[in-house]
Specification:
Length: about 425
Amino acid sequence: MSNQRLLLPEGVKEKLTRLYASKHQSWLSSTDSNAWPLRIKLGTPTEKEAAANPSAVKDWIIAWSSWQGTGTLSWSDKRWHILGTQSLPQEISFTDAAQVALLIGERSRWERAKQRFLDLSEKWPILLHTLPRFFYALADYSDSDIARLTSLLEWFEKKTPVNLYPRQIPVSGVDTKWLERHSGIITKLLSVIQDKDEDNLYKLTGLTVPPRLVRFRVLDSELRNHFSGLSDITCPVDEFARLNLPIRRAFIVENDQTALCFRDLPGAIAIFGRGYSVEIVEAVTWLLKIKCYYWGDLDTHGFNILNSARSHLPQLESLLMDEETLTLHRDLWVMEEKPILAANLRTLSVEEQNLYLALRDNTFGTRVRLEQERINWEFAWDCICKVYHSRSLSGKPTAMQSTTLEDSTQLRIKASNL
């Protein structure tokens, strides 16, 4: 007889844990009418099996004799010819999900989820079959978050907030960040309540979408005259996209403080990249027609952001994202928390791809990261100036000075050799 056939208490807990993970949503809404009582057979042996492995059977009986968990344990008497009458555990049964949750250590989460499910489905019966999909929210949201969610759904049910921004919603505790973090559950529940097939919160509610903003510095005194002398400007992306100025160079810089360190360069601007928000460049078509550089952290995420930005700006060149810069600043390395593990970043050059893979594969050490702002500034500025002057700036600048793919490739090679 295999010992695996005799189900011990720990085996029952493991089985119930797997069952709970797959069934808790249907149990919450009581849609599984055949779920209860839930019976688990414990693997009663035959006389022959018991005689062949008496120690295993004895341990099994002792384990269940001392059982003090939830559920109802059933025993049966077996009258065997040789071993005589033996009282053996037969099955354990559970009347509801609460008993199962208690046994596997999920009692508090289950009780919170169940009560919140009952409260919300009583208020909105139409949500009966939708709420279980958000078990994690029902179980883990704070009381204040559930109160905000309920109040917000009630407010949207009564109002169509035309021309209102999220920050203007008159519900206590609800601001733009809270709305963004919980937009998935809000959108789904509200679409069911309003009987609308829409998965965009702003279209569903009528809220006004906050404009995407871009921050940039003007690095040329003549260009600053177009902005009444302002050098550090934040504006909506669509307004930035409509600029018509003699800009010849754009430096997209990851770290705010690093961007603030840039000195004047004729015809140039510095754009604050701010991580994956760098994708806003997709909307700025005039950037396609000038020289653009990206300078990010020397880690896997930095190269992933470069890869993403270059998918919108094919001529984009990396700056100070090379092995020489990395190794020269070894004493300033830190550890990257969650590296990117992609096998290939398709827009990277051969040199960039090789360095990305070396960082990903821990060639230089465990999860090596060099933050952009830690690079020696005089070293960095010298490299920036060399790249800036690597092509003649003579002649009258134009707002839409074009760059061929061949020129871009040649400059990328020059920059990598600095």
